[in-house]
Amino acid sequence: MQTLKQILNQQISATLGSVAGVENPSAHVLTASRPEFGDYQANGVMAIAKQQKRNPREIATALVAELESQNNPLIAKLEVAGPGFINITLRDDALLGLGNAALGDSSALLPSIDQPQTIVVDYSSPNLAKEMHVGHLRGTIIGDCLTRVMEACGHKIIRQNHVGDWGTQFGMLITYMQELEGEQDALSSELANLETFYRAAKERFDSDAEFAQRARNSVVKLQSGDPEHLKAWERFIDESLRHCEDVYQKLGILLTRDDLDAESRYNDELPGIIEQLKAKNLLSESEGAQCVFLPEFVGKEGDPLPVIVQKSDGGYLYSTTDLAAIQLRADKFKAQRSLYVVDARQSLHFQQVFAVAKAADMAGPELSLEHIAYGTMMGSDGRPFKTRSGDTVKLSDLLDESVKRAFDLVSEKNPDLDEQERQAIAEKVGIAAVKYADLSKNRTSDYIFDWSTMLSFEGNTAPYLMYAYARIKSILRKADIDTSADDLQITTLSEDAERQLLLKVLQLPEIVLAVAEECFPNQLCNYLYELSGLFMRFYETCPILKAEPEVKQSRLALASLSASALQQGLDLLGIQTLERM
Ligand code: ARG
Questions:
Q1: What whole-number distance in Å separates Cα of residue 277 and Cα of residue 282?
Q2: Fewer CB in 10 Å around end: N or C, the chain?
Q3: Is residue 118 within 8 Å of 151, Cβ to Cβ?
Q4: Taking the complete model, does pTM exceed 0.90, yes or no?
Q5: Ligand 1 pocket test, candidate residues 128, 162, 333, most atoms within 8 A of CB
Q6: Which domains, from first to last, does the chain contain?
Q7: Ligand 1 center to 126 CA (angstroms)
Q8: Which of 564, 561, 453 is nearest to 498 (CA)?
Q9: For residues 352 and 105, what is the distance between their CA atoms, to the nearest angstrom?
Q10: Residues 132-171 pLDDT 10s
């Protein structure tokens, strides 16, 4: 549906235009920051008053008078506040109408957009030489959530998993594979744990000069397309992808093999990228390497900072591949946005690559290139999360541990449930806890990973939200009503807790739209946490099952609608709900 904010903005902006005599002004409607300010606030008068050097209260008063004369079906009350803000209170019957429409059609709680875009979301993107570790958690979860949110808005999403599958490490790995090839079982079992496989290969590489030489030769062979080497490399990549897919499956991530955008895909394009840069006169040689110098990139001393696109030995770099990828996203995918959900520590890389791509016209002005940066996941010691012995933690182990901890917790709370059911609950809660703990933090900050808070049933956590949902479901079961029945309607908002709850539910599409635009999933988490809090207040202050029949029906309908909003919101975060907990 069109969001309340959009409708208000349109209508009030139009009236503001005629009252103040300006074209296309923005009424700048925001959700009210406090209930005593009404439901929404329009702050756009200030800017116009400043422009016209007029008293903002005067314009605001005229605007309110004009709006009042229109008998807007949505607006109950308007009030000029402070220097020239307008507080807006919506009509209860309008809220009821929208709420009842959404009861029959849960897609009404999602925004609809006029102009769907094609949006590339580059996320997860691990290096395939090793197994996925905790460093890949954030990008994988945040990226996946953004694709769900944008898809729900109606955009066309192209997921791209830009895995690292090329480069010198693979020479070492396939040489080690070839050594083990004689002993078939040894190879399969060693590949079962890529982490130890990588370590063993690296140990051979570092300690045996002859092995190291073979490894270097094999890189050359691989890059020149030798079939034997290609075959070994493909086997390794396939094995490594299987490990990723295990993790994706555990985490409920939507990426499939069709979404692969491996670095090797661009091998043949790279010489052409250098040629294009040359043709645009952007290339200069520095210490044998091909570089692009752009005026906006300077070092600490003001010295020019190069973007290296080809090494002196002819090899290409991460940035060269990214330029080729940008070209594909621009020319072939015709995307309007290309998002890179990647660690904040790569931000200089992206600034440079984006700037070179724009300077070389590889991406026109119609393509917005955006680094969706995220901070680091820290251990309780305030340093990047590691095992006690200082090793990186495999993502798959972390997820298993979370499910195990959730199982212990559920068993403690619900010892009577049979083991299978406790396990099923634990699998959902354990995964949800890890995802939600991450999504609920502002992505640009570092955060401390803490088992006890993320698995707590209190506070802004997945278990709390999932429990709130299950609680509503249990009320609906007790009432034994058909929640899909046409005659189930919300008919009364006499209690403040009812009104606040319904208004909040109707604001879901606004939040979803904001997340699609600004790419901060924590906005949706905060919303769901507030929604659950409002539901709990409603539940405590408004008797449901014991109310008079008509009020009871209305409150059950409101409870059911709240459950839909909660479920939709959690679904967009990639979190599954449970009917019972
Ligand atoms: N594979 C890279 C890494 O592990 C991340 C790739 C991100 N995407 C991109 N188009 N550069 O750091």
A1: 5
A2: N
A3: no
A4: yes
A5: 162
A6: 4-90 (3.30.1360.70), 168-256 (no CATH), 266-338+345-369 (no CATH), 462-572 (1.10.730.10)
A7: 7
A8: 561
A9: 46
A10: 999 999 999 999 999 999 999 999 999 999 999 998 899 9
